[in-house]
Amino acid sequence: MSDVLLTEDELLLRSSVRELADKELAPRASHYDQNEEFPWDNLRRMAAMGLFGLTVDEAYGGSGGTARQLAVVIEEIARGCGATSVIYLAHLSLCTQFIHTFGTEDQKQRFVPQLVSLDRIGAFALTEPGAGSDAAAIRTTLTRVDGHYVLNGTKLFTTNAVEADTFVVLATHDPAQRTRGIDAVVVKRDTEGFTINPQHGKMGMRGSSTAELVFDDCPVPEQNQLGAEGEGWAQTMELLNTSRVGIAAQCVGLAEAAYEASVRYVGQRETFGQQLGGFQSVRWTIADMATEIDAARLLVHRAATLLDRGMPFATEASMAKLFASRVAVESAHRAVQLHGGTGYFAPTTAERLYRDARVTEIYEGTSEVQRMIISQDILGG
């Protein structure tokens, strides 16, 4: 994006996070990917810069800030390391912000400062074996017993779960009510009957942990319920609309990394007696990548601007997520193609980005779900 479209504060923030991404995140990305290792070094540096407090009120240890600023930060982190950006998004935009947005004053004081300082890692548990895109079909139950709740069920694909201490969990007090029966609660790692089973074998984002959560008669204090009974679904939809702006920004960062790797490679690779970048077909591919990435970035910043202004933004967030995820996947595909055989082997940036980008069309609402949201806004029904 042209610098003229960014404020002075956004430019300064982008500069500092870009330096971090280029000097520290990107050089370590392959190591964390190849070893499926949680990037603690990256996260601690980001915490020292105050990035985990962005968009969080100062009263709870945060630094405030706007959705546009967060989009700038997420794009730069994803440019450097996709897995680190996933961890950051799940921790801040889902877990921390769920409590920060819907929690009582007591809940905010108890949980948010520790998440902002990174003394605790946060996770958000929604998906289940039988409830993915149809999240209203969740079967994890929350039952009131003798002044507290009892949690039973299973969650899948929970990001950060292996390292997390603080979990926001969606459950139902009455499956027959579907969306009207869903509640949100905060569950601590050391809760009795709570088991975390790491899931391995992911195609990409390997530095980010994913796990199955099993709740077997887990006691949850009443004071850990977020909002009133039955409000969990509305809370989740509101939060996902917001977090999709961040996911779209992540997609732009991944696409930008693929584009930059491609520009470097075609500028140094020689074939048939000339630089690869001298061939018209290659030049046009680079031009298409640059144009599509800039268009995706503009969609992200439009959605973030609407959010900051308190205007309706859900459809625009879905448009940004739908388009930017497609651009991320297509840019990674083109990067591998331009790198040829080199791009097919690890550890190369193109190969890693090809694997990392694919999930962006799946999580935080698949592309099909985004089309449902957009078309419903246009056509109704």
Draw up the topology in text.
Blueprint: H1 8-35, H2 40-48, H3 67-80, H4 82-102, H5 105-116, E1 122-125, E2 141-145, E3 148-159, E4 166-172, E5 182-188, E6 194-198, E7 210-221, E8 225-226, H6 232-268, E9 270-271, E10 274-275, H7 280-308, H8 314-339, H9 341-344, H10 349-358, H11 367-379
Parallel strand pairs: 1-4
Antiparallel strand pairs: 2-3, 3-7, 4-5, 5-8, 6-7, 9-10
Describe the structure.
With 381 residues, the chain is of the alpha+beta class. The chain contains 11 helices and 10 strands. The strands form 3 sheets. A 4-stranded mixed sheet has the order 1-4-5-8. The chain has a 4-stranded antiparallel sheet with strand order 2-3-7-6, with helices on one face. The protein has a two-stranded antiparallel ribbon with strand order 9-10. A hairpin with a 2-residue loop joins strand 9 and strand 10. It is globular and about 80 Å long. The mean pLDDT is 95.
Write a brief structural summary:
The chain is an alpha+beta fold and 381 residues long. The chain contains eleven helices and ten strands. It is globular and about 80 Å long.
State the order of secondary-structure elements, H for helix, E for strand: HHHHHEEEEEEEEHEEHHHHH
Number of strands: 10
Class by SSE composition = alpha+beta
Helix share, percent: 40-55%
| Mean pLDDT across every amino acid position | 95
- Number of discrete helical segments: 11
* Rg of Cα set: 21 Å
| Amount of beta strand | 15-25%
Note the gap between the termini.
36 Å
State the low-pLDDT regions, or none: none
Q: What coarse outline follows from CA principal-axis ratios?
A: globular
Strand order of the largest sheet: 1-4-5-8
User: Could you give a short account of the major beta sheet?
Assistant: 4 strands, mixed
